[in-house]
Amino acid sequence: MTTEHEEEVIEAELVEENLPALLDPAPRVRPAVDRHTILYPGQSVPTESETPRYTERDLYVSARTAERLEKQSAPKNTSANYTSQRNLFAAWCTEQGRVSRPCTTATYVEYVAHLIEEGRSPNSISAAMSAIRTWMPEDKKPGTKQARGMLNEYKKTWAKRTAVRKAPPITDALLRAMVATCDLRTTTGRRDRCMLLLGRGALNRRIELADLSMADVTVDDDFVTLHIGYSKTDQEAKGEYTEIPADPDPLLDPVGAVRDWLTSLHHLGVREGAFFRALTSRGTLQSRAVATERGDYVSGDAINDWVRGRAHKAGTKNWQKVTAHGLRRGGAQTIADAGGDPTKQGRWKPGSAVVKREYLDRAQSRAQNPWLKVQERRRSDGL
Questions:
Q1: Tell me, what's the pLDDT at 90?
Q2: pLDDT value at 10 more than 50
Q3: Does the N terminus or the C terminus of the chain have fewer Cβ atoms within 10 A?
Q4: Are residues 153 and 178 located together in one domain of the fold?
Q5: Helix then strand then coil, % of the chain, to nearest 5
Q6: CB-based contacts of 221: which residues, under 8 Å, 6+ apart?
Q7: Closest C-alpha among 258, 177, 273 to residue 221
């Protein structure tokens, strides 16, 4: 028989035996999930013990890869613009005593209102909104509904007071006049004639012309074939081929124009590299020693200058407004007026709304213009 004191001792000893189990349970396994996790039926919840442990080796890229990242051609301008927009936003937030990153939706909306009051263009404001929002952590981005609503209302008033200025199309008559100014006895004349006829025939964007290499241009008796290595609708640089047929008019024949320019390049000692070259007033190759960004390749602005210069020589009214885009617009309109579809030739996206609205619908509208019926009636009546 045990005493009361002994019972207390025994109970204490029993508790002592179980104490480690109570105070030191098995290590708690934390789930490795967030609001983006998706689990299929039957799958177990992943835990932190199953995730890999990264070292510095997993985070660094090589010097060569870093150089490639820095030289990314497509997003380079966008990246620089985004950095500028974010810096402006951060400076504004500092002035206003607001937190810039991560910002609240109210701060985001107030900044958009600030840009509207400054009279910035809708496209500029939209770019700033995108730059700021993508700067925020993934789970702390501001809402866009209110800011987008304000911007949409602003677009209506902006459209009323700001006319959209498009480069005038280079019509067949204007193209002929511009090409006629190209003195084929000179190297510059042969280059500019080739540039005009390729830009018109392939419906090139100016940068597509500037980026052409000699290896991208193939010529035979019936066609000139251009390999467009990269374009606005080919961001992955898969490359596309565009063919331009020969023209029976020697003045406007792209086949003859390309052959003449290739002959000039060979006389200049050029066998590879950039197809269109910067020339001196004497027709020799211009030094590109300081052109670190594009080397021997000219810029899109240079192509614009060449086109505008030919418009000026042709005595074109308002020649200052003529740009290389006029070759693309004029050519596309001519194809549409003839019943064709310029989409493929100009490397627009299939079913492009721009082509339908600006060229195909316009051509159809012209063909169905009621005044044509009146003129047809007059002709039949002998008037």
A1: 95
A2: no
A3: N
A4: no
A5: 55, 5, 40
A6: 246, 255
A7: 258
**Spatial contact of 32 and 48, defined as CB atoms under 8 Å apart:** yes
- Is 369 among the domain residues? no
In this prediction, residue 142 carries a pLDDT of: 92
Establish if 376 belongs to a structural domain.
no
Which carries the bigger pLDDT value, residue 369 or residue 260? Answer: 260
Residues 181, 237 share a domain: yes
**What letters, b where the CB count within 10 A reaches 16 and e where it falls short, cover 57-80?**
eeeeeeeeeeeeeeeeeeeeeeee
Task: Count the Cβ atoms, other than its own, within 10 Å of residue 163.
Answer: 7
What number of residues does the chain have? 383
At 287, list the tokens. 């030094």
pLDDT at 307 over 90: yes
Domain ranges, residue 239: 172-332
Task: Encode pLDDT of 198-226 as tens digits.
Answer: 999 999 889 999 999 999 999 999 999 99
Omega of the bond prior to 31 within 30 degrees of 0, cis?
no
pTM over 0.85: no
Q: How many domains does the chain have?
A: 2
Contact 291, 183 (CB under 8 A): no
Predicted pLDDT at 129: 94
Q: Give the Cα separation of 326 and 332 in Å (integer).
A: 10
Residue 119 in any domain: the answer is yes
Residues 359, 357: Cα–Cα separation, whole Å = 6
Whether the Cβ atoms of residue 73 and residue 229 lie closer than 8 Å to each other: no
Between the alpha carbon of residue 47 and those of residues 43, 51, 73, 299, the distances in Å are 12, 7, 41, 54
**Integer Cα distance of 256 and 145 in angstroms:** 56
* Helices (H), ranges, the chain: 4-23, 63-70, 73-96, 105-117, 122-135, 145-161, 172-180, 187-201, 206-210, 254-267, 300-313, 325-337, 353-355, 361-367, 370-380
Distance of CA 44 to the CA centre of its chain: 43
Contacts of 247 (CB under 8 A, 6+ apart): 253, 254, 255
CB within 8 A of 378, min separation 6: which ones? none
